[in-house]
Design goal:
Shape: flat
Number of strands: 40
CATH architecture of the largest domain: 3 Solenoid
Strand content: 25-35%
């Protein structure tokens, strides 16, 4: 599929600087651009590459002003990164989709399968399941009894959705993710730990994306809920009875302990940890490797372990570099004080 700069600019409402008939058929990083490629420049750190890139078309922000000649055609937009995302989504949507049900799939006779679906070899769909229109289930996917999956979902290879769980429309579950495994519930006794049955379910609302090998556990009672538009990276753990607010994003290896409620539009950096029974307010930012042991108010930005206000953390971190020097000073002062005492 080829597109001209004029067609692209029309789609993203951009302003062309250069050859409006320049054609592209692929995407490339600006530093690795080749003829026929579309690149973008959003981070000023990469500005030097726009003068040497081989890409035919480059998306730039409207405030970009070149310092010397550029061979590529530019398309100026309000937000180059956002415009690139729109174009990539358009490109992906135009690719032909797989359809058909493999004879090597195992589908219960009581299951309801929608139209225009793709079910690959060795997929297992349990009793009384519902798979919506336009869904794609790749090799080795396991869908337990009573599961309901909405329309236009993609379940990549070896995804597991446990019994009775719910997946909304337009969800993407990447390879190895597990939806609805038992929560970590055990009652200590004198002889060891007795397992507490996890009788609840997991609910993923519309437009949720779950990364590879990420786990969202089922509730002890009721439901673990991931609300609409949430994006979870690889290797994230969402424990039993958690609730993750709409449009919240979590980077790799975030862990959320049980019965925690997270607000909308929150951001969690990689390896952040949230303790159980907490409430995290809307639009909160939790930095990478941050250890949150209590509730957070809406709009807070926290860093460190235990978590503290980001500005206070940065001040404290500045002192860490001086600890060795401060230690020497304290020892010297201690000697001087001791010497003064001995003179008395």
């Amino acid at each position: 599929m080829k597109f001209t700069a004029k067609q692209i600019a029309s789609f993203i409402q951009g302003e062309i600087v250069g050859n409006e008939n320049a054609e592209v058929y692929t995407f490339a990083k600006i530093e690795e651009g080749t003829p026929g490629a579309l690149s973008f420049l959003a981070n000023p750190k990469y500005a030097e590459y726009i003068y040497t890139t081989g890409s035919s078309v480059v998306l730039v922000n409207k405030d970009f002003e070149p310092q010397k000649a550029i061979s590529a055609t530019l398309i100026k937009v309000d937000n180059a990164y956002e415009s690139l995302a729109k174009l990539m989504m358009l490109y992906e949507s135009m690719k032909p989709k797989k359809q058909g049900i493999s004879s090597l799939a195992s589908i219960a006779t009581s299951a309801k399968i929608g139209e225009n679906v793709y079910i690959a070899p060795f997929v297992v769909v349990g009793e009384n399941c519902e798979i919506g229109d336009g869904c794609m289930l790749y090799d080795g996917v396991s869908v337990g009894d009573g599961v309901k999956i909405g329309n236009n979902c993609i379940l990549y290879a070896h995804v597991t959705v446990y019994h009775d769980c719910r997946v909304g429309n337009n969800c993407i579950l990447h390879s190895g993710s597990v939806i609805g495994a038992d929560g970590f519930g055990f009652a200590p006794t004198a002889e060891g730990y007795n397992k507490i049955p996890q009788t609840g379910i997991t609910i993923l609302e519309d437009n949720v994306e779950i990364g590879a090998n990420t786990c969202v556990d089922r509730a002890t009672m009721g439901a673990t809920i991931v609300h609409a538009g949430v994006k979870l990276d690889n290797l994230v753990q969402i424990a039993h009875n958690d609730e993750v607010g709409s449009h919240t994003v979590m980077a790799a290896q975030v862990g959320v302990a049980g019965t925690t409620k997270i607000g909308e539009w929150c951001i969690f950096g990689g390896q952040a940890g949230i303790s159980g029974h907490c409430t995290i307010g809307d639009r909160t930012t939790v930095g990478p490797q941050c250890g949150t042991i209590g509730s957070l108010k809406s709009g807070q930005t926290v860093l460190g372990s235990p978590a503290m206000d980001a500005k206070e953390y940065i001040k404290a971190a500045a002192y860490l570099k001086k600890l060795s020097e401060m230690n020497k000073t304290i020892k010297q002062l201690s000697k001087e004080v001791e010497a003064l005492k001995n003179k008395e």
